[in-house]
Design a protein that fits this description.
Shape: globular
Number of strands: 7
Number of helices: 8
CATH superfamily of the largest domain: NAD(P)-binding Rossmann-like Domain
Strand order of the largest sheet: 3-2-1-4-5-6-7
Radius of gyration: 17 Å
Structural class: alpha/beta
Distance between the termini: 38 Å
CATH class of the largest domain: Alpha Beta
Number of domains: 2
Bound molecules: nicotinamide-adenine-dinucleotide
Amino acid sequence: MNSKTVLITGGASGIGLAMVKKFAAEGCQVYFIDTNHVEGTKVQAEISEKGLQATFLEGSITDYSQLENLIHSIPGKIDTLINNAGVSHIGKVENTSEEDFDRLFQVNVKGMFNCIKACLPKLKENGGGSILNMCSVAATIGIPDRFAYSMTKGAALSMTLSVARDYVADGIRCNCLSPGRVHTPFVDGFLAKSYPGQEAEMFAKLAASQPIGRMGTPEEIAEMAFFISSDAGSFITGSNFNIDGGFMGLKM
Ligand SMILES: NC(=O)c1ccc[n+]([C@@H]2O[C@H](COP(=O)([O-])OP(=O)(O)OC[C@H]3O[C@@H](n4cnc5c(N)ncnc54)[C@H](O)[C@@H]3O)[C@@H](O)[C@H]2O)c1
């Protein structure tokens, strides 16, 4: 991956941040898009202090014309796109508002579509490359109280398969990762919002729902993302990988 150009969305926090660090440490030219000005600027400075390269592109993946301008600002080709930015919501159909539904769809589905569409010219210019989408175990199993979130991750899975099929002849591979619970600000945020005062108890419960007995780490997901995106993963396309401490495969 040395000197390859990698674009990561949602790189200012959690799994995306671990990916930015991993790909930069491996010598890639990393660009990351995020809405979080403070964290994005901080991450860019921290990586640069280590003598590595990661450029923060501030903006939202939901705004196609802004996104297209950001992607045009990347010099030359793109080898790898990682669609990682995502937002969550807790609730069943009855306590999901129309606004919640639209917000999740805009970021997790349309944002992914926008990034793929805007990056395709640069991936083709490169003669091929890799697209990796962040999906979730929630795409293929019913998880309580995750209606809108699961719906968007189901869409991310089918988008992955469709894109993999349509661009295989262009040398573009497209895959997705389906993590179980990974300890990131995403998890801390929804525990604080949904279970105020019971965060520690709920954290332990969520950790225990993985047969391996804990949540994943962002770094574990970044390692898998790196393998799939690199030439070592060159035979992999149209695949969804669970990375979930046994959540999907083992009986509790
Ligand atoms: N943490 C988990 O347990 C878990 C499990 C399965 C899948 N995932 C998926 O992994 C991905 C990353 O999750 P995380 O836990 O690291 O989340 P996180 O909340 O820690 O980080 C998400 C990042 O995306 C950015 N972002 C949000 N909306 C954006 C937008 N419109 N445009 C640009 N950037 C935007 C945020 O600012 C943030 O920096 C998500 O797609 C999530 O659904 C997470």
